[in-house]
What does this fold into?
Amino acid sequence: MKYLDEYRDSAIVHGLAERIRRTATRRWTLMEVCGGQTHTIVKQGLDELMGDAVEMIHGPGCPVCVTPLEQIDKALRLAQDPRVIFTSFGDMLRVPGSDCDLQQVRARGGQVRVVYSPLDALELAVRNPDKHVVFFAVGFETTAPANAMAVWRAAQLRVPNFSVLVSHVTVPPAMMAILDAPDNRVQAFLAAGHVCTIMGWTEYEPIAAKYKVPIIITGFEPVDIMEGILLAVTQLEAGRAEVENQYVRAVRRQGTVPARTLVEQVFQMVDRKWRGIGEIPRSGLALRPEYADFDAELRFGLQDVSVEEPAECHAGEVLRGQMKPFECPAFGTLCTPERPLGAPMVSSEGACAAYFNYRKLESPARGAHPVAPAVSSHESPVT
It folds into this structure.
């Protein structure tokens, strides 16, 4: 298949790994921002193919994982309200709140429904005028256009029983928060290709210039990631810090202009809390005042809900790249996919889930598991 099999070619992956090892004169520390990239790296053992040339650390690029506990508790309150049909993508159902998760609410009779688009939730509201339909609007810039379209369309159709619980976050402020931290070790980033498909990369250029860090936009297949790492190491060795686009088959500098325009029309930048990290200034999206009628927090009076994160969950350290999942004392014991302490263990993009599924036996005492062969053209990595 064009643009798929050739990006999973084992020989190309091993060739890129060899070029990285030859290019690096010292050990470089890179962070992949996206959880989809993390799963490909961990499942295929890409980090191990590079030996001591590069250390990969995992960033806060899983939107489910960074959704704070208080937002989950707001969702649970809405889902348990008999007046509400609560809708969400399926990856939010197992994320633990303070007392339970959305799947448990549904099992108890709550009207929780999985949809594949926020426009499906809007259609549900049209068909059920006696119920209030809430959509859980979670995600980075990637999902923001569809959510903006649903709100815009609801306003055009005058659907009074539709609203969204907004928990959108944006990538560039999180990258700057990591770089500003006194314990930062990141020397270059692999930026998420799907985010840049929407937003382009103009927002990354001042970050690369200010912090002197290369930022390489990559896709999610093994060849994409290895080529992105090679570009980053080449820049680091040359003393350059620029934005480069490896994902040329999907990303343009200005992104997708109509999508960006719609997002800016419906949403505005706000300060936003991130799970385990805290509040990052101007890192989130919220509905503009002219769309406030579709804000579920305002409609149901949930603005003041505040919850402390559980101390036994070290999701914050994992999301900031300060701890590998297997270094968490609860990993694989107190925290498993069946009984998770935090979202990174149950999200399809969570770093803890990646390590549990593919490197469960890895620990500091045991050391890394044997190097797995890079993916062949017939295997299907998680992305």
User: Anything to note?
Assistant: The first strand starts at residue 28 and ends at 32.
